[in-house]
Amino acid sequence: MSEADTCRTYILPNLYAAGWRDDQIREQVTITDGRVTPVGRKRHSRGPRLRPDYILDLRPFYPIAVVEAKDDYKEPDDGLQQAMAYALRLGVSFAYGSNGRGIVEHDFLTGVESRLDRFPTPEQLWARLRGELRLADDRDAADALAAYYEEVGGKTPRYYQQIAINRAVEAVITGRRRILITMATGTGKTFVAFQLIWRLWKAKRKKRILYLADRNFLVDQAKDQTFAPMGDAMVKLSGRRVVKSREMYFALYQALYNPDGGSLYEKYPRDFFDLIIVDECHRGSARDDSSWRQILDYFSDATQIGLTATPRRIDNADTYAYFGDPVYTYSLAEGIDDGFLAPYRVQRIIPSSDALGVLIEDGDRDRFGREIPPGLYGTADFERVLSVLSRTRAVAHHLTEYLKRTGRMDKTIVFCVDQEHAAQMRYELARLNADLMRVYPDYVARVVSDEGHYGRGHLDHFQDPEKETPVIVTSSQMLTTGVDAPTVHNIVLFRAIGSIVEFKQIIGRGTRLSPDNDKFFFTILDYTGATQLFFDPDFDGFPETTHVSTMDATGNELSNDPVDDPTAAPEPPAFAEPGAIDPGDATTGPAEPRKFYIEGGEVYIVAEQVFELDSEGNTLRTVSFTDFAREQVRRLAPTADHLRLIWSQAEQRAEIVAALHKRGITLEDLAERAGRPEADAVDLLLHVAYNAPLLTRRERAEKLRQTGANFFNTYEPAARAILDDLLDKYADFGSGQFDNLAEVLRVPPFSAYGNALEIANRFGGAEQMTAAVRRMQQLLYE
């Protein structure tokens, strides 16, 4: 019997016999979407999806066991390890392998494996799990299985969201006072918060709930979108108005806390709130010396749940010290591997001012006539102490040229040092994109706190997939966290980043997938070396590729076709008066010291690289794209002769192309990088993998005409003419002409020979014509 027969004949009836209902049995359910692999500049492929044979639920979205079926001639144990792998992924406690005639169980609670005659009942499994969870009474047990929000068709939670929600609810029920959930940006922390709040609220476990954040758009986004089903039970606290008649409260720390005394939170009794959700809790609320910590301490009787995207680090250790170990962690790497988050490529561009530094000697003055302290200034100093305006201009030019090559309407965030730097960058980008600014006046916009509601309006439009513009936004701190912009294609790093916590938050702005808008991966353009943080041993999500480019002084990319120098730009405005300081975005700390403004600096690219994980998926190594492609081709075809042989067969040629595609390599990309778009695909592969001469398709076709006279002379003149025309088609368009022969024969010049049957008859029949074309391919690639 096949596996499907085993399921239908034995396993499903056995589950029914054990008391499992149809609504508790999920068969062949897909739990992941399959990892996205970028291919070329715009295309992608998907990896395999995980699909357990059966998931057993105690109630909807509360799985407890996995069953993996195997053919009846196999042993029950043959499916057990696969079931265990699925169980670990799903966070369930019981795994079963079965061939229909026997059942083997692995109990994760005890580590014991047992051979069984029948499946346990739902009540038996729940009794075992309930004891492990230490649920004190029947009310606790019932509330642990409380219903999710689904009254009017709520969004279905993904498997990892179910784990996070269930574990948080269980932690609350069992009396844990401080709870932490760590989930990568873009994986639905706010949705998780809503679902667990809904369950606790409906079960009357928590009656008054406070949702805390440090930015308005975090609060408004949660209140107006995710939490909308709570309706009139919600209120946002602001100003000095005290509201005590609602059940769900939203607030900024800044609205509750007044450093001058008389804070709004002090107007409420200490035991007023039962539950507090702290969004983006790594941003300082848990620090011992934080003024916002006073709010959490004041409401210390409430259960407090922290949400963060960053695993434990030195610079966020206070968060973990306050909330404790997370009840669940879903990392960036897991999200990418499951296909729920977008992978990313890295392009590293090194300005020479950053590579070599800017040397200031005694007596050097800036553009305002102020004497600059002598010394060697580097990346960390730029736009903090020393503003190199030509550096900004060159980077803006390079970014503009990059977008011209890849997509000028691809939404892009440029992270600058401060608000003034963001203004400089916006000005330069607007100047270089005047043609689009004429059509779309907000093609480039600055989104910083100083812009007030104008900046907020630009941000709203930038986040909206239905809005074409703004396309490029420049910012400093405002967009580093919490902004949901699913259509972002490019993240530009134009400031030094020392904290991996901040780095991961910034990267998270691009990790959301948007299939409806053809966004499956994104690119990080790094002008400051910030992506060196990828090599931190604790970083949990590696880039797909890294490409290091070279630019000249004006921002032209030297590794691509040269472009004309831009027309002379007008003198940029003075963005700050001498001695001015930048106030910074909200919560960023002390204001920046004054800067010195100079001209000078150039940009260039030094190498081209890709990142690749080792066979174990652990160690990150850097290799050139050509070396990477060479390794992949040699894995598929160990010798040049073998590659020529299999390439001459249409089916095997398609398999090679598909295998390279899955590895992120396209023949078009190889041809572009080699600068030989007219080369035959197999010649590109032979050249890359085995250093063979790189022929054009026409050169290969002419070589066959010269050496293949015996082949052509075996056919009548009319048949030879058809083969000769087919060879010309190959020279113009490639080997795809052989693969789609039926279609090719319908167009000129072949249509002049008659229909497909008449053409085939010139060879003596269809089989003879097919054999002739196949033989011509073999000779072509010898």
Summarize the structure in words.
There is one protein chain. This protein is α/β, with parallel strands linked by helices. It has 5 domains: 3-133, Alpha-Beta Complex (tt1808, chain A), CATH 3.90.1570.30; 138-330, P-loop containing nucleotide triphosphate hydrolases (Rossmann fold); 344-566 and 575-604, Rossmann fold; 624-695; 698-781. Strands 16, 20, 21, 22, 23, 24, 25 and 27 form an 8-stranded mixed β-sheet that branches. A 7-stranded parallel β-sheet has the order 11-12-10-13-14-9-15, sandwiched between helices. Helix 5 packs across helix 6, helix 13 (389-406) crosses helix 14 (419-432) and helix 19 (640-647) runs antiparallel to helix 22 (681-690). The two termini are 46 Å apart. The model is unreliable at 541-593 and 603-622 (pLDDT under 50).
